[in-house]
Amino acid sequence: MCGIVGYTGHDKAKDIIIDGLKKLEYRGYDSAGVALMEDGGIQVRKKAGGSGTGGIANLEKAVAKEKFRATTGIGHTRWATHGQPSDVNSHPHASYDGEIAIVHNGIIENYRELKDQLEKKYGIEFVSDTDSEVIAQLIRVLYDGDLEHAVRKAVKKMEGAYTFAAIAKGEPEKIVAYRKDTPLIAGIGKDCNFIASDMTALLQYIDDFYLIDNGEMVVETPDRIKILDPAGKEVTREPLKVTWNQEDAEKGGYSHFMLKEIHEQPKAVQETVSRRIGKDGKIVLDGIKLTLKDLKKFNKICIVACGTAYHAGLVGKYVIEQMARIPVEVDVASEFRYRDPFVDDKTLFIAISQSGETLDTLMSLREAKGKGARILSIVNVVGSSVARESDDVFYTWAGPEIAVASTKAYTTQLVCLYLLALYMADLKGTITREYYDEILSELKAMPARAKRVLKKADKIEEMAKLLYNRDQIFYIGRGIDSSLAYEGSLKLKEISYINSFAIAAGELKHGTIALMEPDTTVIALATQDRLFDKMYANVEEIKARHAHIVSIAKSGNKKIKKVSDDVITIPKCRDEVTPILSIIPLQLFAYYIARERGENIDKPRNLAKSVTVE
Ligand code: AGP
Fold first, then answer.
1. How many CA atoms lie within 13 A of 163 on its CB side?
2. For a pLDDT cut of 70, what percent of the chain falls above it?
3. Are the C-beta atoms of 408 and 395 separated by less than 8 Å?
């Protein structure tokens, strides 16, 4: 996944574009570049990142002394897919004669065929190893002085998921952008206009923006935004209001976006719950028309996602099956889409995704749709591909999540799954109104309770100072806690690079307990009253092997202290809803461990915020 930005107006474009790219760095940061309309030509400057510095930092250094007067330009920050990070593989890519320049987010799947044709038929020599350069060369050979026309012809020949923006030497104030399967917005400025992969890049410049649909083209000049549908017909639509402020995009005084986002969870949960409580105190699922007739038709629910979102699905299975009594299968998307799953029009398919752009999840959604399933998605990014291609969208109002390690998106995904389970159970009558009201009041109490858990951050930081140099850490739990163990373990792995393993506590004695030796570190989730005695016995078994045990338990639980070296408590609440609280100490633990180890927390190695490739 990459980030693209474009500006056409009357101010100097270079700094505005580079500033926008900085806000999109979470989308990819291995290299960056700008193409500026300068003195009747196009000036391209691009730089790869190096050890510890991202591409944008190197780009900024490289152009710092250059006094560009350009008022139109495009820019790009990259997450390499085709062609390893290097200056020449960075974007923008220019045509062989410098007449055209483009920035691209996505993958041109038939780029090899197009490249062969362009090399054979036009003798073009490609300079990079990327798929994207094909776009610049293809538009050039189709260019007859009208960029819009050339782009229209070019996209007919391109296959894959892509969004790109192009400029042409002969049309100095014009930016033409095209969207297919990766995100694009058009930002409305004062006497200027913008394009960007998402609004995070433009928050300080715009109040209103257009979401661009799949197959749509945007043609921008300083005084006009023209949106064309796939047939080339101009479409008019109401601009959307920016709901996020600049602060949201900045770190708000925290040392890392991840820590900021962990501390934003009370607000995110509040937002996600409160918008769904109707005047009658009952749940409203913002326009999702799930009727009892629908529910009676569904013989199963398939929850499909990747990484942290998949882990939210594991908790979803517990609460939906327990409350609504509908069988739930949970699948990782990269497996689901290739196993020819049993899915048909009696299946409710739930896709969970923070970015809404994760390709495996999107393709699984299409697979299920093709088989007749009803598609409901739980998504954080408004207008993202997964949201657009779903029959129903249930947004998590977590706000922008910048850190690669997902935290507040996970917690709000859990909240959406609880609300959905309660809503379906109430429709089906599988729970009493008392139970419904009780769980709902538990959810409404979560923001305040989450604040109390966050107050334990200092204690967790002290714990991390003792444990940060461990080379492996285990996570165990029973019932709904066993699902949480997977997410706790992933958080630690992805930002601290400590090898970590999650397992259902009852499974230990069937093999994994062989790994327990003096000082092995184990995080034991023991929040389930119903299963506490079983869990206590499991912790006792590993304590007998002198493991170092940190337990997460409900406040007032004195017994767990007997077998734990450290205990982090969460406020008392019903077993079903503990994951919303007990995930917080696990996130903080992973964060402080990684900080003690001096790791790059917001941009962990080898990871990107959303994976738009297979
Ligand atoms: C989680 O911290 C990771 N960033 C990753 O596992 C992520 O959850 C996964 O790639 C799914 O992303 P999505 O929610 O945007 O679809």
1. 30
2. 98
3. no
472 bridge partner residues: 499
State the DSSP H helix or E strand holding residue 542, giving kind and residue range, or none if neither: helix 532-543
Q: How far apart are CA 131 and CA 199, in angstroms?
A: 26
**Res 613 pLDDT > 90:** no
User: What is the distance between the alpha carbons of residues 343 and 269, in angstroms, rounded to a whole number?
Assistant: 32
Phi, psi dihedrals of residue 370, rounded to the nearest 5°: -60, -25
Contacts of 606 (CB under 8 A, 6+ apart): none
Q: What is the 3-state secondary structure (H, E, C) of 32-43?
A: EEEEEEECCEEE
Q: What is the Cα–Cα distance from 354 to 582, expressed in whole angstroms?
A: 20
CB-based contact 28:608 (threshold 8 Å):
yes
How far, in Å, CA of 530 to CA of 241, rounded? Answer: 47
Q: What is the widest separation between alpha-carbon atoms in the chain?
A: 79
pTM across the whole model: 0.77
DSSP 232-298: S-EE--PPEEP-S-HHHHS-TT-SSHHHHHHHTHHHHHHHHHHTTB-TTSSB--TT----HHHHHH-
Q: Is the Cβ atom of 353 under 6 angstroms away from ligand 1?
A: yes
Residue 246: pLDDT over 70: no
Catalytic position from the list 46, 408, 491, 609 = 609
Strands ordered across the beta sheet of 566-570: 499-504, 472-477, 521-526, 548-554, 566-570
Residue pLDDT, tens place only, 440-459: 999 999 999 999 999 999 99
Q: Is 2 a catalytic residue?
A: yes
Strand-pair partners of 376: 350, 392
Whether the CB of 71 sits within 6 Å of ligand 1: no
pLDDT at 53 over 90: no
Query: Which residue type, as a one-letter code, is found at position 600?
Result: N
Q: Are 347 and 302 in contact (CB under 8 A)?
A: yes
* Closest atom of ligand 1 to CA, residue 311: 8
CA–CA dist 95, 76 (Å, integer): 16
Name beta bridge partners: 137. Answer: none
Cβ burial 566-600 (10 Å sphere, 16+ → b, else e): bbbbbbebebbbbbbbbbbbbbbbbbbbbbbeebe
Q: What angle do CA 76, 82, 6 make, to 5 degrees?
A: 15
350 CA → ligand 1 middle, Å: 16
